[in-house]
Description:
- The structure is a single chain.
- This protein is an alpha/beta fold and 245 residues long.
- The chain has helices at 8-17, 30-42, 62-71, 94-111, 123-133, 149-157, 174-182, 212-223, 227-242, and strands at residues 23-25, 46-50, 77-86, 115-120, 140-142, 161-164, 188-190.
- Helices cover 44% and strands 14% of the residues.
- Helix 2 (30-42) links the parallel strand 1 and strand 2 (46-50).
- Helix 8 crosses helix 9.
- The longest helix has 18 residues, at 94-111.
- It is globular and about 45 Å long.
Amino acid sequence: MSDYADDLDAVIRLAHESHISTIITIGIDLQSSARAIELAQAHDRIYATVGIHPHEAKTATKETLDKLNVLAANPKVVGYGEIGLDYAKAYAPVDIQKTACRAQLQLAKALNLPVVIHDRDAHEDILTLLKEHAPFPAGGVMHCFSGDWQFAEEILKLGFYVSIPGIVTFKNATTLQQVARQVPLERLVIETDGPFLAPVPYRGKRNTPSLLLYTAEKIAELRDIPLTEVATATTVNAKNLFKLP
Ligand SMILES: [Zn+2]
């Protein structure tokens, strides 16, 4: 995103200095998917996903999906998404969001790529869509998980991973903290969602991958386990999910 236009190299360097071994950068439309691949090709330890975010659902025409299908053949593409439903901002009508999501769930399955799912205020409907298209042999992740434990259990039943963002460090995020405590360690991953959702003590500032350490530290504290255990587990899980070398 443009938030990193001025200092992208420094952001990536600082991430690696902060022991972030691998970064997956995300496509949200055709253009950003192509850019994500470019970035991944320029850096050893960066990988990419391609897809059309629910905000951009109107652009998910057959022609665009055909182009994404071609882009997805790049060896640096390790997942399909973000795709899903967003009823909080609702930039696209619900029926268009659902159509775009369904088409891309099918495409991701045909490509044998794990899906990266975006869900805001749409828990019930996204679950319906995912169940419609289950099983997902290549797996998936509920990115920026925002539901309660009951919803997490449904997601886990689908074989998905649960991804915890910096929100878990916020004082009032008790529901997410409970989820972060209860998700089996072998199904937990962590994410930046940069430039958004910076963890405390950088809440409200630009988020960068190096700040992921604060998210990992909070999860370690919540689960009463060493930080290294969270770091190892989430690294292994991400490698398994995205089939990283
Ligand atoms: Zn998202």
